Amino acid sequence: QVQLVESGGGLVQAGGSLRLSCAASGTIFRIDAMGWYRQAPGKQRDLVATITSRGSTNYADSVKGRFTISKDNAKNTVYLQMNSLKPEDTALYYCNILGVTTSLTRFDSRGQGTQVTVSS
User: Fold this and answer.
1) Within its chain, how far is the Cα of 56 from the centroid?
2) Neighbours of 79 (CB within 10 A)
3) Pairing mode, if any, of strands 45-52 and 57-59?
4) Contact status, residue 97 vs residue 1, Cβ threshold 8 Å
5) What is the distance of C-alpha 25 from the center of its chain?
């Protein structure tokens, strides 16, 4: 079983920065990809950024140049550095991690979410 613990959300003024963290623990054999998604009230859940085991990254157009995804393999942790935040970035942010357990079964785990609120 794989558990994810997210942290780093909060309230920030427009133009400010936040750094989200998501630590995975449990019966992890290998992590293949990590990512962040967000969902604003009344809207669908959208991809924010992903990073593969090899470090390849992908970003939503709306966050390119402002957000940076990174990871610490030793800690099974993924980060999302968010700069130049805008009110439209306000949402519940979820991390999602894909990989293989020690039982050699695939897992696709999502965290509980951390709220990011950007005031104008």
Assistant:
1) 15
2) 21
3) antiparallel
4) no
5) 15
Q: What is the mean pLDDT of residues 39-44?
A: 94
The answer to whether residues 97 and 6 touch, using CB atoms and an 8 Å cutoff, is: no
Instruction: Copy the structure tokens of residue 119.
Output: 């005031």
In 3D space, the residue among 115, 119, 120, 118 whose CA is nearest the CA of residue 39 turns out to be 115
- pLDDT class for 51, splitting at 50, 70, 90? very high
Q: How many angstroms separate the CA atoms of 68 and 9, rounded?
A: 15
pLDDT for the residue 100 = 97
CA within 13 Å, CB half, 109? 26
* Spatial distance between the Cα atoms of 10 and 19, rounded to a whole number of angstroms: 10
pLDDT at 5: 94
**Mean of the per-residue pLDDT values of the chain:** 97
